[in-house]
Amino acid sequence: MAKLEEIPEVCRNEVAEWNRETKQLAEQLMGLLSEGLGLETDRLKKTTCLESRTMVGHYYPSCPQPDLTVGLTSHSDPGALTVLLQDQIGGLQIKHGDDWLDVKAVHGALIINIADVLQIMSNDEYKSVEHRVLANAFPEPRVSVAVFFNASPGAREELYGPFPELVSQEKPAVYRQFTYSDYIRRYFTKELDGKSLTNYYKLAFHEQPTEVKAGFYGRPELGSGVSLFSNIDLFLSKAASWRDTLQVKLGPKMAKLEEIPEVCRNEVAEWNRETKQLAEQLMGLLSEGLGLETGRLKKTTCLESRTMVGHYYPSCPQPDLTVGLTSHSDPGALTVLLQDQIGGLQIKHGDDWLDVKAVHGALIINIADVLQIMSNDEYKSVEHRVLANAFPEPRVSVAVFFNASPGAREELYGPFPELVSQEKPAVYRQFTYSDYIRRYFTKELDGKSLTNYYKL
């Protein structure tokens, strides 16, 4: 504890007393929480998560324009447990689904927050709560006092993760192990932003045990709604690429939710909604860019058939001997790509390969082959590849491909008639979408050979 003479005299005795009381309370709570997990009473206490304690006294003065700021940004607490005392002014809110709910002050009551590390150790049996404090709209100041319980500084290089007793084949580990020092460093070198750190330490689907992933193994061409594989051209390429891919059909009829791995089920459903809306806006802008009606590209049904792939590129011991993804251009009309910060994506410009640097929060939009053809070369699909991952951390990317509806695949596609004239003749011949797809998936990935195949 800080030296008593260092603590402001006006609250010195109160701080010392509150330290004793909250420590005793937290010991009792940790015992009950251990028993609630079916563990020995002192299991959580052994993690040293009661030993490092920090008290903060928050003072929220009256704010003349409370709608323009906040008292405390949305976040979940670090460590294991938080004991919070608040006054009667109010302003604390917790997130429940997409809604923010007021936490009404109850005279004489304390608020106990499960914090991130306890959520992780409990393997999601307990959940940390995302919360915020509104700016104080009342004339009186708002005051709250929180005590945070963390691991002892001497134990911060030890590994933390789900308790082994809570992990089984029926309930696999949700999180990977980490040192407490790594957790604390990441927490205090980023903006407060919801529950991003629990998400950061989650085991991705590709990091799940082999027996969990085994049920999803299969070739994508066999028509399953969800499949896990390596090369899409495995039986045609000269070698397997250094990656694994989880593929999920999103539309026109999405794979059944229960078929999608539980660890990413909700995220896949949400990403489907968001990327579909984005692609509709992009298709409208791209139509206008060609001088056509806003809905022209949408009428081709090229938004209806959607497939998501989650690429996982593990660290490669000899990255100069292989690739993560062979040179190719995308099928269909449009691709929405999200990549992490590892890097490795390259595009071909002339005879050179250029790195596509990751920009935090940005998406990559690829024009695909069929849109190049329909635009009569006004838009160009991009030839790209992914290098084998030379870094110790895995590289992850998520792509959503937009293709024509299965019901429209016997219709003819080619340059839009509105874009063809004597001055600008058609560059491509017409073809059925089914012919294009058949050719794409019965050859090795090899640059932009299909756009060249359909050229007049």
SSE map:
Layout: H1 12-36, E1 52-60, E2 70-75, E3 81-86, E4 92-96, E5 99-102, E6 111-114, H2 116-121, E7 131-134, E8 142-150, E9 159-160, E10 178-179, H3 180-187, H4 196-200, H5 210-213, E11 226-229, E12 244-251, H6 265-289, E13 305-313, E14 323-328, E15 334-339, E16 345-349, E17 352-355, E18 364-367, H7 369-374, E19 384-387, E20 395-403, E21 412-413, E22 431-432, H8 433-440, H9 449-453
Antiparallel strand pairs: 1-8, 2-7, 3-6, 3-8, 4-5, 4-7, 9-10, 11-12, 12-13, 13-20, 14-19, 15-18, 15-20, 16-17, 16-19, 21-22
Protein name: Fe2OG dioxygenase domain-containing protein
Keywords: Iron, Metal-binding, Oxidoreductase
Organism: Rubroshorea leprosula
Provide a brief overview of the structure.
With 456 residues, the chain is α+β, with helices and mostly antiparallel strands.
What does this protein structure show overall?
The chain has 456 residues and is of the alpha+beta class. The protein folds into 2 domains: 4-203, B-lactam Antibiotic, Isopenicillin N Synthase, Chain (Jelly Rolls), CATH 2.60.120; 211-453, Jelly Rolls (Sandwich), CATH 2.60.120. The protein has 9 helices and 22 strands. It has helices at 12-36, 116-121, 180-187, 196-200, 210-213, 265-289, 369-374, 433-440, 449-453, and strands at 52-60, 70-75, 81-86, 92-96, 99-102, 111-114, 131-134, 142-150, 159-160, 178-179, 226-229, 244-251, 305-313, 323-328, 334-339, 345-349, 352-355, 364-367, 384-387, 395-403, 412-413, 431-432. The protein has a 6-stranded antiparallel sheet. The protein is elongated. The N and C termini lie far apart (80 Å). The model has no long low-confidence stretch (mean pLDDT 90).
